[in-house]
Amino acid sequence: MRISHLAIDSNTDQYVQLNMGLVLLKVDVPDRNYSRMEETWRSVAGFIELAISQSQNNVVLVQVHGRSLSASFIVAWLILHRGFSLESALEFIQERFTANLDTSLMYLDKLLELAPCKAIKQ
User: Fold this and answer.
1) Which residues contact 35 (CB under 8 A, 6 or more apart)?
2) By C-alpha distance, which of 14, 20, 42 is closest to 110?
3) What are the helix and strand counts (H, E) for the chain?
4) Distance of CA 33 to the CA centre of its chain
5) Greatest pairwise CA separation for the chain in angstroms
6) Domain 3-114 grouped into CATH 3.40.50.150
7) Which of 2, 4, 62, 108 is the most exposed place for a label (fewest CB within 10 A)?
C-alpha cells in the first residue's frame, strides 16, 4: 500500500511538490486552544471517509501541526464515521501509535462535543 490521500496544514508548502498522484486536502488550522475545530474535523473526517470508500487500499496521511493535533483528526473521524466514543477512539489511536500523544494538545473538550452523549471517563 502507498499513500493515496494527504491532509496537510494550509501553511505547509513543502508537500505541494510531492503531489504527484496524491489527492491533497489543505486544511486551515490555527494552532490555538480557542480555535473552532468542528468544521475542520468534519472536513478532514469526510476526506478520510471518502478515501476509504473509494478503495480499502487507500492510505491517508494526516500531517497538521504535529502528531497530537494530527491524531485529533483521526479521533474525529472515528467518532463521526465509525461511531466510536471519545474514550474508545483515544484507546484505539494510542494502541496503534508508536509515539506518545499529548492529549492536552488534542482539544479533548471540543472532541467531546462531537459525541456529547458519549462522555469520557476521568
Assistant:
1) 29, 107
2) 42
3) 4, 3
4) 16
5) 44
6) no
7) 2
